[in-house]
Amino acid sequence: MKLAEALQERADLNRHIDQLNDRLRNNALVQEGEEPAENVETLKGELDASVSRLAYLIAHINETNCKTFVDGMSLTEMIARKDALIMKIAVYRDVAHEGSMTSYRARNTEIRIKPTISVAQWQSEIDSMSKELRLLDNKLQEYNWRTELME
CA–CA separation, 141 vs 70, rounded Å? Predict the structure, then answer.
């Protein structure tokens, strides 16, 4: 199984577990004399099997990410870099947005508000980081499809 397939299965299992949670909760109580719409024990067994499979996949995905190297970096390091870039870009965008806000004065006696940053310079850095993020994500996707899951 390719790493990308394991990642897709992991995402599917997470969604399925959320759905099982809802279904179990919906069938945990019934009015006296009524039957639940679904068998709770069957759902519980399905949940247990799904959680077990998820734990297996997470362990093997993490092992594969730690032991697979691309350009001197493990996939784990590349994922951490990607997450850090996403966070940094979001903050930079917020700051650039705030710095580009204009305030209008009805009279010259009103307080003048001006930016403390060069919005153009911040935007240039955002563009540069966004490009790095795109290239990094492309490389991760490529290796997710090239790499066999370590089992």
Answer: 12
Q: Which two tokens stand for residue 3?
A: 């790493």
Residue 47: name the closest of 11, 18, 8, 89 by CA: 18
How far, in Å, CA of 43 to CA of 31, rounded?
19
Q: pLDDT per residue over 46-94, tens digit each?
A: 999 999 999 999 999 999 999 999 999 999 999 999 999 999 999 999 9
What is this structure's pTM? 0.85
CA distances from 125 to 80, 122, 129 (A): 19, 5, 6
Classify 117 as helix, strand or coil. Answer: coil
Strand 73-74 with 69-70, pairing: antiparallel
* Cα 122 to Cα 127: distance, rounded to the nearest angstrom: 9
User: By the 8 A CB rule, do 36 and 30 touch?
Assistant: yes
HSE-up of 55 (CA within 13 Å, CB side)?
A: 6
Extract the tokens encoding 46: 């399905």
| pLDDT single digits (tens) 18-29 | 999 999 999 999
The residue with tokens 């697979």 is 68
